[in-house]
Structure prediction request, 772 residues.
Amino acid sequence: MPKTSSAGSARARLRAIADAAARWCAADFPPRVRASTAIERRLGYSLPVVEVALDRLFGGLTAGALEAAIADELGTLDALDGFVERPGRPPAWARAAGAVTIVSSDTTIGVAIPALAFALAANCAVTVKDRSDDLVAAFAETLGEEHPALGAATSVLRWTGGADEREPHLLGDAAVVVAFGSDEALREIRACCAADATFVPFGRRASAGYVDRAALRDAAATLAGPIARDALLYDGDGCLSLHLLYVERAPDGAHERLIDALATACADALVEFPPGTRPPGRAARAQAFATIGAFRAAHGHGRSLRAADGAWSIVTDPPRGQPLPFGAGVLPVVFVDGLDDAAADLRERGIPLQALGVADPGTADAQRFAERFGAVRIAAFGRLQDPPLSGRHGGRARIADFVRWVDRA
Amino acid sequence: MSGAYRAQADALDARIRGAIAGGALDAAAFDNLACAIFAHQFRWNAAYAAYARSLGVDETCLPRTATAIPAVPAAAFKEAPLCTVPPGEAAVWFETSGTTQGRSGRHYLESPALYEAALLAGFDRALLADGARLRYALLVPDPRERPHSSLGYMLATVARERGDGPPGWYLRANGIDLRALETDVARARADGVAICIATTAFALVALLDELALLGSALPLPPGSRVMETGGFKGRTRVLSREELYRRAAAAFGIDEAAIVAEYGMTELSSQYYDSHASRGTARRVKEPVPWLRPIVVDPAGRPVPDGVVGAIRHLDCANRSSVVAIETEDLGAIVPGGLVLLGREEGAAARGCSLDAEDLIRR
Prediction:
């Protein structure tokens, strides 16, 4: 297993990655067309949804964004090429950590690609476990066309976890293992890593939204559309999808009016993001959740609003402590009296939070909400699922895990 | 309850008993009976009526076909008492599972008579078509310890009404009492009486594992059979059904076709069993009794064509004093002869990096 690439300067690597991504931004780029169809088949999303995902994924992979993220973490891009002077500290070189393995089996669209880009930027040799849509493999091919050494440093494979003789070698010999998956899968992968390897886990997480009375008063008319898009894009599959919404009760009933507006907005959002095909089990779970919501509503507890075809469902005030059927177009809404109430509800449901959507992420309250919920990302509604490349996914560094610092005394 | 209620309930019970005692029930007869039961429940089951009203049903537009009857989600039994009599007047109640929401509900029955008639008739068709009087070895909850287990109640009733003597109960707090089971099986062999082992799938696995550990088998007398029910949801040990039956047949010295799966729910009074024709085949078909009908629906709640997978809705005419139409998250498809069951877990797993309910339950 090669440990590093021989791919020239960091700047040249970044340019090649960005050039490859730029080619993937074109909707008629043949590999993208093929990958889109395969993704559509794998995940059951409609083509417009796949296109949005690919636009966001590759549109963000620019040389400028990559360099900004690297400079933020390493001080300067030049640190990847050799020793750099640092005021008040010894000169240091951020050399490649070694071989990197990325396990991104059952994930949403292209989550391995940013990790791949930063690992390659760090001059690491990278192995990626790909999905049946072969998106990473296709992108690696484009990378190879842009910069043959980067292509050579990237190995994209498919294997079955726990049932492939290559796996112990691919995980055990890696200096860094990046893994996406369930708690159980992450534990198993971690157990296969070398003792001194860096393990970068991305476990399953959910995202929530919080609408306070001030937002209801000032921005109610504009909130519903962005909230609906955050909830319905990617059918709730991503950890940045809006899975649960907290709304403060307002004396004038504005919280209930927001639900009516949300129902209209959900219908509108699905014109932009047409629903795809859901596996029957997920569809049945969503249906059951909406139906029990309707039953509760008939007995005076909450409301249940649902598209006639089941494409989206909004259920208000689901019983506390009840596990929620994330995804499949379901948006549970919990009315609360305040932040403490919402935090208690979240704790009772045992939901580990990734991101928090709010009306205005710039306020002091938003920071307080995120801290209270344990979220690692605060975003304005409508932007929840559109994180910048230079952001820290999962609260983790983008490139720091892929380098080892060498100090010169 | 009022005289009007009693008269209506008794008349319906008589019709249902007729259906249970009779043979096939054609579509029109089933529709007619199910709709009459719904009308009765709409009048007397306040919680069901409130739900039906919220869906637009009222006295002037009651359903005329079984598929139009509003189905209550199984989880609703955790939300409200769904009974045509006040819960305090129910003769029995069974505790529903709490796997999905972490809390249980209750299925109240005004009287056990209809339930017992339905379960016995279903069991007779599925397991006692040869009229055998069997000795019952039960690896299910003992009603003396868990009086509100519908499975325990059901099998105690079967053993009482169809057995050749008192049944044996072998589930203990710390596992299966294998020694007692072996002793009783040996006695049955000596007596020349066939045995019916009725067990949950999980208990069957535990029994087979224990036998394997001891390197022994438990050959049953000729004519013996096994009734297996339930899946492995939430369990750490999962076996494919094919593997389970292969191992059970070998351990008990019986044909795989003598192992019959039951599919039921606490919220139902009637059960499905593997059809005779599909036993011993790779694809077992769950056959409903004539007074029970499955409907498979799409995410919008519309019936799907035969062969298409969707969520299963049950119309159980023996549920006269509770709810005639129950919606589940179980997946299946209608095929000739009945229903093919896929189970709740297939196709339900989270696809992305977000959580799903199962993740949270496991945490």
In short: The domain at 113-290 of chain B is CATH 3.40.50.12780 (Rossmann fold). Residues 3-21 of chain B form the longest helix (19 residues). Chain B touches chain A through 50 residues (CB under 8 Å). Residues 208 and 248 of chain B are 7 Å apart (CA to CA).
